Amino acid sequence: SVDLYFLLKSLTENDLAMAGTFSRTLRHLFNVVMIVPIIIDYMISIFRWCGHILAVILLTVLTQWGGILWIITSIVSRYTAPIRSSIVKRTVLFLCLYLFSCFVIVPHLAELGGRRALPLSKRSVLRPHTYVSVLLSRNYVNDQLYDTLIRTADNLRAEFPGADLSYLDACFPFIDGFPLLPHLSHDDGKKVDLSFYYLEDNQPTSKKPSRSGYGYFVESQYSDPMAAKCEEAGYASYDMAKYFTMGTRDDLTLDETRTRRMVEILLTDAQTEKIFLEPHLLRRLGLRHDKLRYHGCHSVRHDDHLHIQVR
User: Fold this and answer.
1) Do the strands 252-254 and 140-142 form a parallel or antiparallel pair, or are they unpaired?
2) Is the separation of the CB atoms in 64 and 186 below 8 Å?
C-alpha cells in the first residue's frame, strides 16, 4: 500500500508538472497570436509610409510640385471619412486636384517667379510635340525665351505656310537650380529642346519619327561619327534616349531646308546665347556660327533634337 501511495503521488506530481508546462505553452501561444495582428498592422503601416515617401519622391522628380500635392491630398483624405477608406476615391481626388493645379494654379504662380507656360494648343504656331511635357509641367521658360520662340515660330510660318514649331522639354515652373531630369542644364527657365522638321514621301509634314520627340537619331553621312567616339570612350549614356522613344516610325526623313532655316532664325535672334547640335548635322546643313556649340560626350546626343539657351 505504501508503494502504491508513492506511485500515485509521483504520477500526480508528473501530471501537475505536465499541466503546468502545457499551461505555460498555451499562454505563450496566446501571446504570440495576440502579437501577430499588431506586427502585421505595424508592417502594413511601414509599407504604407514607404509608398507615400516613394510617391512624393517620384512626383517631385517628374513634376517638381506633384509631391507637395500628394502630401496635401493624403492629409485631406485622412480626415475625410468618405475618402479615407477608399483608394479609388483618394486616387480620383488626387488626379482632379492635379489637373486643376496643372492648368490653372501652377501657371499663375509660375508667372510670379518670372516663368511662363509655353502654348498648349497643337493649333498654335508654337506647340508641344507631346502633352506629356505639359502634364508633367516641363514646359516653362522665362519671358526672353518665350518671346524668342514665338518670333521664330512666326517667321517660320511666314516662310513655310502651315509650318509650326514643336517644343519638347523646357524647364520646371519654379526655383532656379532645380534639376529637370534627365537633362543636365534645364534648371533656370532659359533652355528648351526643339524638334527637327521632317518629310513624308518628300513632302513637308508636321509628323515626327519618335512619339516622345527623343531617341530617333539622324544618322551621320560621314565617317567617324561622334556617337561612336563617345561610346568607345565609355560614355554609355550618350545615346540612352533611344530607350525612351515611346514608339518610332521609319517613313520620315530629315527636312534639311526647314530645319536649317529654323536654326538660322534662332541664330539671328539677339537673345540666343547657344545652340547644341551634333557636328555631323552642322556639316550636313552647312551651318557655322559662334553660337553653335558641341555639348560633349557627357551629355546625350543632339541629332534627334536641338537645344537652345538664351542669355
Assistant:
1) unpaired
2) no
Radius of gyration, CA atoms only, the chain: 32
Q: What is the distance between the alpha carbons of residues 103 and 258, in angstroms, rounded to a whole number?
A: 32
pLDDT 10s digits, 223-279: 766 777 887 888 888 888 999 999 999 999 999 999 999 999 999 999 999 999 999
Model confidence, pTM: 0.85
- The helix/strand/coil state of 10 is helix
- Class of residue 166 by CB neighbours under 10 A (exposed 0-12, middle 13-18, buried 19+): buried
Cell of 282: 552642322
User: In 3D, which of 48, 28, 52 has the Cα closest to residue 40?
Assistant: 48
Spatial separation of the C-alpha atoms in residues 127 and 166, rounded to whole Å: 5
Q: How far apart are CA 226 and CA 73, in angstroms?
A: 48
- DSSP 3-state assignment of 271? coil
Cα 132 to Cα 28, 37, 138, 211, distances in angstroms: 57, 43, 8, 10
